[in-house]
Design goal:
single chain; 681 residues; mainly beta; ten-stranded mixed beta sheet; six-stranded antiparallel beta sheet; 44 strands; flat
């Protein structure tokens, strides 16, 4: 039988399987696009108040279906609302997809461009999924625009002519398929999985979880995991026993397909895997990593970054990090690790043990897992250490991830709008519950209005993102408004009028459109807010630069509804990595050391991050090392970490007396063969 005849029968089966379905209706916004010379459209779902720089999932319908049906069956929208990402459901021409050429490839690219222009999405985190023929299109896109899509998630669909893996890079794929699919048969799934496993250089033998999830003994899902491969990509097959040709969201007896797709895709950008789960990740040999009582190795597969911390097999051997907490709070500390046996560690923060951490065996040194513990922390600098409580040492530690970031909002110090025109130029609207923007381009027109806001910019140094949040009460049409940061902060809410308004043009932050009544809009003002270190005040102006003669009105700080008032939202990380100062120490074998500077026959060598060694009568065989400069907060520590080069000894410099710690001194025993080391703080 020819491949064309097989494909024809498959298409006929697809049509037969779907024409009898009643397509449900759902609230959505339909957007029209012109792609080349062709008019196209899509349904978009945007969570209320969606932030900038969020991911996008593009979901493709099956043959003889449409975007509304795909939106209903995929059930992605509730997940998007919770996880804060956007979804686009394009419509295919004639309810179909072009599996050759660029017609629908160009559509996908146009969808990405539109969503980027309107919502400022993170272009590195665009994910593509599709059902049935939409799944076929997903596979086709993998061979054409792998540089634009971070991960691919076909459902019940694959290329009929056989596998094609000519992608521009290794790509992560999660394929979901029912074993009883009588339209796109399950029997050919494995050949496509095998082809991508080979393309991605993933392990050919999968890790099988049956049932999946393992805590559901009656689940009909089996998960086949192949990975990691080149650049950390993975291939996953979710096999649904007895399921047919539909999107299965059967959480009682299996899985929610779209939730599993999101759980997989969210780990990737077009540049590779995302390390961690949104917290602050501390990798070996990067800022915040102080050291390990052992070595940083890379001889076991599956690690991230440059390697993993391999401690000595000894009680007390550990890994140390240095960080700063913006606020006192409870934080989560997640350790990614590998171990062939169960091991126990002790978590210590600023010298205080906060609890033990159990690391169950992962099965091999190349299989990694994560354990998480929570602990209260104080505001400010912190020395964090994980140390072994038994002679077997710690498991291999890939990284530490600290989670528990916060978003803090502040109200305006002042806000008001000004209005031009006869009878308005001298009027003050500082007590109005409205902030209004409009312009018709005519000088002296009473239609012309601009709005101003002023916020405190104090205490924003550690914030990773700062955004202005506004809620419209009136939107008369389509308009793109300009948001500017002003250098003039002298205006006051009670005195601001059209004739004394501050000049604009200092810093254009954004030009945004797409407003809707009672749907919050956000504007990234991070750079402007952080540049206000001098006076600690951020002034903003909103205007209509293209004179669209369209009124856009926002609630002001005098609005009666609290949650609709303007806010400056500062998003703080869970922790801020702190660079460690490192000094290199060399000394000779003499039993008596009289010199203690950087040039004598005693302490000598290269200093990095410290201004000088300080000598003294205590600088003898079992004497003290004292540092000056470049080592803040040393007095709060009981010791530092050293690594040896000559004799292979490992250990810690320990301050033995309080006066030594207070004077930034450490004593340590000298042994034959110990020549040099790094002091890190």
């Amino acid at each position: 039988m020819s491949s064309f005849l097989c494909f024809y029968r498959l298409l006929r089966a697809l049509v037969t399987a779907t024409v009898v379905l009643v397509l449900p209706t759902a609230w959505a916004e339909t957007v029209n696009l012109t792609v080349g010379s062709i008019s196209r459209n899509m349904i978009i779902h945007a969570p209320v108040g969606i932030e900038a720089n969020r991911p996008l999932v593009i979901s493709l319908h099956g043959l003889n279906q449409n975007a509304a049906y795909q939106q209903s069956q995929a059930a992605l929208d509730p997940i998007a609302d919770t996880e804060r990402f956007l979804v686009a459901y394009p419509n295919g021409l004639n309810s179909s997809w072009s599996l050759s050429g660029t017609t629908d490839i160009d559509l996908i690219l146009a969808v990405i461009d539109y969503m980027a222009g309107r919502y400022n999405i993170d272009r590195s985190r665009v994910y593509l999924s599709g059902f049935s023929m939409g799944g076929m299109m997903t596979y086709y896109a993998a061979t054409r625009i792998a540089d634009k899509i971070a991960a691919f998630a076909p459902i019940s669909g694959y290329p009929i002519g056989g596998p094609n893996t000519t992608s521009s890079r290794p790509i992560p794929i999660i394929h979901t398929h029912g074993t009883a699919d009588d339209v796109v048969g399950y029997g050919n799934v494995q050949s496509h999985i095998n082809a991508w496993v080979q393309r991605n250089a993933c392990p050919s033998v999968p890790v099988v979880t049956d049932p999946y999830p393992s805590n559901k003994p009656n689940s009909i899902c089996t998960k086949y995991y192949y990975g990691p491969g080149t650049n950390g990509v993975e291939v996953v097959l979710m096999s649904l026993e007895g399921k047919g040709h539909w999107i299965s969201n059967d959480t009682a007896n299996g899985i929610h397909t779209s939730q599993e797709i999101w759980n997989f895709c969210k780990n990737y950008t077009v540049n590779g895997p995302i390390v961690g789960n949104g917290g602050i990740v501390f990798q070996e040999n990067q800022v915040g990593f102080v050291g390990v009582d052992g070595t940083v190795d890379n001889n076991n597969a599956g690690f991230t970054g440059s390697g993993f911390a391999n401690t000595a097999n000894a009680v007390g051997a550990g890994v140390s990090w240095k960080m700063r907490f913006p606020f006192a709070a409870t934080k989560s500390f997640a350790f990614r690790y590998a171990s062939t046996d169960t091991r126990m560690g002790k978590l210590v923060i600023n010298g205080t043990a906060v609890g033990n951490v159990s690391f169950p065996a992962t099965g091999s040194w190349g299989v990694w897992s994560t354990v998480t513990v929570s602990a209260p922390v104080g505001e400010g600098g912190a020395d964090v250490r994980l140390s072994a409580v038994s002679a077997t040492g710690l498991p291999n530690i890939d990284y530490l991830e600290v989670s528990g970031g916060e978003t803090l909002a502040r109200s305006p110090l002042a806000d008001a709008y000004v209005r031009e025109g006869s009878g308005n130029t001298g009027s003050n609207f500082g007590t109005s519950p409205q902030l209004v923007v409009k312009s018709d381009g005519s000088a002296g027109s009473s239609f012309n209005r601009r709005s101003y806001l002023k916020f405190s910019a104090v205490g924003l140094a550690d914030a990773t993102r700062i955004r202005l949040r506004l809620v419209p009460f009136q939107v008369d049409g389509s308009a793109s408004l300009a948001y500017e940061a002003l250098s003039d902060d002298t205006w006051t809410e009670a005195r601001l009028i059209w004739s004394n308004q501050p000049a604009g043009g200092s810093m254009i932050l954004a030009t945004l459109g797409g407003y809707a009544v009672d749907v919050a809009t956000t504007v990234d003002v991070t750079a402007a807010a952080k540049s206000e270190g001098g006076d600690g005040v951020l002034s903003l102006r909103i205007s209509d630069p293209v004179n669209s003669n369209t009124l856009i009105g926002f609630h002001s700080k005098e609005a009666s509804t609290l949650e609709k008032r303007p806010l400056l939202e500062a998003i703080y990380p869970a922790a801020v990595p702190v660079a460690t100062a490192v000094a290199h120490l060399r000394f000779d074998e003499a039993d008596s050391i009289t010199a203690a500077d950087s040039t004598g026959n005693g302490w000598n060598g290269l200093l990095s991050g410290a201004s000088s060694w300080v000598g003294g009568g205590s600088a003898v065989r079992n004497g003290a090392l004292r540092l000056t400069g470049g080592f803040p907060d040393v007095g709060q520590r009981s010791g530092g970490v050293y690594r040896t080069y000559g004799g292979g000894r490992t250990g810690r410099w320990e301050g033995s007396r309080a006066d030594e710690r207070d004077s930034r001194s450490w004593t340590f025993p000298r042994a034959s063969g110990f020549r040099e080391g790094n002091f890190a703080h």
